Structures are given as C-alpha cells and as structure tokens.
Amino acid sequence: xxxxxxxxxxxxxxxxxxxxxxxxxxxxxxxxxxxxxxxxxxxxxxxxxxxxxxxxxxxxxxxxxxxxxxxxxxxxxxxxxxxxxxxxxxxxxxxxxxxxxxxxxxxxxxxxxxxxxxxxxxxxxxxxxxxxxxxxxxxxxxxxxxxxxxxxxxxxxxxxxxxxxxxxxxxxxxxxxxxxxxxxxxxxxxxxxxxxxxxxxxxxxxxxxxxxxxxxxxxxxxxxxxxxxxxxxxxxxxxxxxxxxxxxxxxxxxxxxxxxxxxxxxxxxxxxxxxxxxxxxxxxxxxxxxxxxxxxxxxxxxxxxxxxxxxxxxxxxxxxxxxxxxxxxxxxxxxxxxxxxxxxxxxxxxxxxxxxxxxxxxxxxxxxxxxxxxxxxxxxxxxxxxxxxxxxxxxxxxxxxxxxxxxxxxxxxxxxxxxxxxxxxxxxxxxxxxxxxxxxxxxxxxxxxxxxxxxxxxxxxxxxxxxxxxxxxxxxxxxxxxxxxxxxxxxxxxxxxxxxxxxxxxxxxxxxxxxxxxxxxxxxxxxxxxx
Length: 531
Known about the structure:
Elements: H1 2-11, E1 13-14, E2 20-21, H2 51-62, H3 67-79, H4 81-95, E3 99-102, H5 108-123, H6 126-133, H7 136-139, E4 141-149, E5 156-163, E6 168-169, E7 183-184, E8 201-205, H8 219-242, E9 247-251, H9 258-274, E10 284-288, H10 298-315, H11 329-367, E11 375-378, H12 386-398, H13 407-414, H14 441-452, H15 459-468, H16 472-489, H17 493-500, H18 510-529
Antiparallel strand pairs: 1-2, 3-11, 4-5, 4-8, 6-7, 9-10
Helix pairs in contact: 4-10, 8-10, 14-15, 15-18, 16-17
C-alpha cells in the first residue's frame, strides 16, 4: 500500500522547483508579498563598514540569514556610482533585447499555443519582470510573485510583484538542512518564513559558479573592492582637506599653565579658519610649509585600480566601461565581444527560467500538462561592425572577386530594401561588376564604358591602351625582382626596410620605359591625325 502511494507521487506533476504536486492544484490568487513594517526598517550595514563587519555579514548569510547581506548589497549600489553603472550596463544589455515565443514543434497545436502564450505575455509587464529577475546577477537570486486571476481553464497572470531579496530567507529550521529554495518572510513567519507555493513565484538564479545561490552573486566579489575603495576615498578626502596648507605648530614655555596651553591651542585652530588669533608673548606659533612634492595621485590610482577590478568582475573586461589613457576604441570593441558572451549567457538562463516558471503553468492550467510547452527566447545577435563590412565588400568588388555577390544579399546584410517604382533615391551605383583580375579592373571598366557611352572615335584609343598593357606582368617582373629578393631574404621587417633603398639601382625599368614611350607616341600621333 505504501509502495503504491510512493509510485503515485513519483508519477504525479512536479512544480517549478521539482516538488510533487497534484495535477488539479491551482495557484493562490491572493498576494503574499504584502507591505510589512519590516520594509521600513533598514540596518544600513554599509554605514561605518569595516572588514570585521563585512566578514560577519557574509558569514551570517552563509548560514542562511541573508537579510543583512541583501541590505548591504542594495546600499552599496546606492552609494557607489561606478558599481551601480556596471550592473545597470549588465542588466540593460539583456533588458533591451527583443524576444519571441517559439512553438515546441511544427504541429498546428504547438503553433497555436505559442501564439496564445505570446498574447498573454505581451499583456504582462514583462520588462519589469526581466529587470527584477536580473537582480540575481548581483545578489545570486531574484524572485517575483505572480498574481493569477480567472477560473477553470481561463487563468491569466494579471500582475507581478517584485520580491526584495531581504524578504527571502534560506535559514534552515531546527534539525533541517539549508533549503535550496528560498522562503518568504511574512509578519506571521518573520524568522523562518513560509514555503513558496507552486506556480506562485518565479525564482531566478545566477549560476556563475556551483553551490549555494547565496554565494553566487557578483556582489560577494565586489563587496571587498567596495570596502577598500571607500576607505581610500575617505583618506583621500582627509588628504584634500589639508593638502597644500601649512602646519601650524604652537610652542609654549615649560612652565606654562594648562590655561595658557588651551589658549595656545585655540589660537592655532583659529588661525586655520579665521586667519587671526592672539597669544601671550611667552608662546610662539611656527608655520611649516606643506611638502608639495608628495605623490597626490596615489589615492586616485588606487580608486581606478579598484574600479577596473569591479568592471572585470561584472562585465568580464574593463575597456568598454573605461577606455583609459592607454586604451583605444579598437581594443574596446574587441573586449566588447567578451561582454556579448556574458549577455548571451544571462539571456539564455533567463529565457529558460521564463519558459519553465511562467509559460509552463500558463499552458498547463489552460490546456493541460501533457501538451508541448512553447519556448521563450531572446533575439540574440552578435554585434557587427557595418563600417568594416562595407569596406570589405567594397574591397572584394574592386578586386573583381568572383563569383558575383548578389545585390539582395548586400541589401539584407545592411538592412537596405530595394527602392519601389518611382520612389526617390539617394546615391546609386552601377550594377555591372567586372570579374577581371585586379590589375586590369580600371581598364576593364573603361572598356565597358566605351561599349555603352563613349563616342566611336574614342574607342580605338582606349583599345590601344588596353592592348598595350596586356602583358604587364612580364614587364613589371624585372622591375620588382630585386625588391622581392630582399623581402624573401630578410628575417625581420626592420632588416627588409633597411635594405630596400639599396635595391633601387638594380631595378630594371627598361621594358616599362619603352612601353610608356610607345604609348605616349601613339597617343600623340592619334591626336595630331584626328585634331
């Protein structure tokens, strides 16, 4: 009997977290993430943060109580503009992508389900869902609550509610291991929280590394960089307050009373602010000039180093966030490819979460759990340098590259549609493309122009010029032979460059000179006869 119950449980439906549930289960329509008095209480753990406090907060989170870690990460993003901009860049790279819902297969049913799911998802505030779920990148996990409405097989998601990370907990109950799924803290369960109901919450994890989601967030890495950076900024501010100002040193006699010493101290401080003060004749104030040769940029260099480490951790590179004095736009474009890989991974993981935790219950509740589930996907296209592609295409055309490049391919590549009949156009080019060898390209185009547009009297001259250079390779070979020998016999570019000048006397230009002389003579004679 017990074995039959276990078999029935194993064969039943599993929710988005892999827990067995009944096939007839319906999502709770009530909102569980209600406003709580705890939402108004902030511990502000980043205020006066020290290495000891940071280590204690991270260790506390490792035990499952992630509230203070979540508050710390939120406050760090508020207080550090660089850190905030890096995570915004990472988030918006995915948030700005177009998306689509693909059918599970080619059947008519699958296509109809995909169209219906697209309509329902478009009615949701999906951009807001995507933006909040991507907070899993800094925190390691992110969750939203789905508010369902409808009856029977007409359930829809009417709204979504962002769940702050500090409203979740991984704290284990007595005698239990740490849960793999977070629980929601409520006023009724403020310590251990309540289990997340099936199909009620969407939980997205950032899987930069294996293990617990608590330690997977990138802010775990950036927290120490943040701490060192703001220690440095604090010292930097103190340094700037006194930088360039002279040291005011007060001297008093050995027998001076406490009242005299206090008066001297007050006078020294007043001189710093008011540039005026009085002292007795038995005391003395000395001004010691500040040392101006100290390296005042050491604080800035340390901050820049920490900023680059943060960019490396968040974006996978540094040049697209800060080219710097030694960087270049070309280098930034190369490094941007690494950032594309991160964006692609973020988008792929988030698409899987949306498919399994939003589309699956939408289809399951309305059409049954045995029908094919459509797939959510982002429109991910690797960025292309169209300027470089245009230059490459121009080079191939001018070189007479064959086979011919279809005009439709070029129009599709650059997003340029064909003009309609009678439509005004800008620019234009000849559609005829020659496939002559590159050395004869110009003359071949001239010959095409002769056949189409040039007057008949000019054709013999152009034909004479083309005939004159038909054997150009045999004429140029003696001229370039010494240069080719130097290049082939040199080990380095510098060695070849140094030897090239010595090749000039050995270059045989007799054949080329004779060819040019004959061409000039023929052109002059033709002109005199037909003048």
